[in-house]
């Protein structure tokens, strides 16, 4: 069993167990599991359940997808899942009412795309190739892929930053601006000219 296969097996076991804990089908055993259950049983539990389930879906996707290239839309969907879960958690935990505004979700989606570019060497070392496949089945040219992902992320950052003018508490806006600023700098430092 290779190190990569062992890691995938570990992630799958973790996701399976956490799914059972979140569904109430097994008792929490660790501090982290007890904390998740406490959050889900708390005042905002119904709103945060979607966050927890979204992250479990994202982890399940990574564990099930295998090491080869993936379709471009699958990578974009994964960034939307992770970014949406993060932004929704910030939104709910800051006490904002209602659903996350769509534009704010774009901001988090862009940040996740920047994260993918930043971590591409780490992902490869773990056996994951995030570049989509070319028509031949081989990974797409890296420079072409980076350019496409960076352009997509920049457009999403612009749309998301415009959405920060929607009504929200100052601390929510500040946290989201800090998050966007950090990952926009990350994006710019990992682009290929």
Structure, explained:
It is built from eight helices and no strands. With 193 residues, the chain is an all-alpha fold. Helix 7 packs antiparallel against helix 8. The model has no long low-confidence stretch (mean pLDDT 88).
Strand content: under 5%
The H-and-E topology, N to C, reads as HHHHHHHH
User: Mean pLDDT, nearest integer?
Assistant: 88
**Gross geometry:** flat
Number of strands: 0
SS element count, helices: 8
Helical fraction: over 70%
End-to-end Cα distance, whole Å, is 40 Å
Oligomer: single chain
Q: How many whole angstroms does the radius of gyration measure?
A: 18 Å
Poorly predicted runs are: none
Q: Characterize the largest beta sheet: strand count, sense, and whether it forms a barrel.
A: none
- Secondary structure class reads mainly alpha
Provide a short characterization of the protein structure.
This protein is mostly helical and 193 residues long. The chain has eight helices and no strands.
SSE blueprint and pairings:
Layout lengths: L2 H20 L8 H11 L3 H21 L6 H22 L8 H17 L1 H6 L16 H22 L6 H20 L4
Helix pairs in contact: 1-3, 2-3, 3-4, 4-5, 5-7, 5-8, 7-8
Labels describing this entry:
about 70% helix, mainly alpha, about 190 residues
């Amino acid at each position: 069993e290779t190190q990569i296969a062992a890691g995938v097996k570990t992630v799958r076991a973790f996701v399976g167990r956490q799914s059972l804990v979140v569904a109430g089908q097994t008792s929490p055993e660790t501090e982290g599991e007890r904390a998740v259950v406490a959050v889900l049983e708390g005042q905002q539990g119904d709103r945060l359940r979607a966050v927890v389930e979204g992250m479990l879906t994202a982890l399940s996707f990574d564990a099930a997808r295998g090491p080869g290239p993936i379709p471009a839309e699958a990578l974009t969907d994964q960034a939307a899942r992770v970014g949406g879960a993060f932004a929704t958690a910030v939104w709910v935990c800051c006490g904002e009412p209602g659903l996350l505004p769509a534009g704010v979700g774009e901001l988090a989606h862009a940040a996740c795309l920047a994260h993918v570019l930043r971590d591409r060497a780490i992902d490869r070392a773990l056996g994951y190739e995030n570049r989509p496949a070319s028509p031949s089945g081989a990974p797409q040219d890296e420079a072409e892929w980076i350019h496409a992902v960076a352009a997509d992320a920049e457009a999403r950052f612009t749309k998301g930053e415009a959405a920060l003018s929607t009504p929200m508490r100052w601390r929510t806006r500040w946290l989201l601006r800090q998050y966007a600023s950090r990952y926009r700098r990350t994006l710019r430092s990992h682009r290929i000219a």
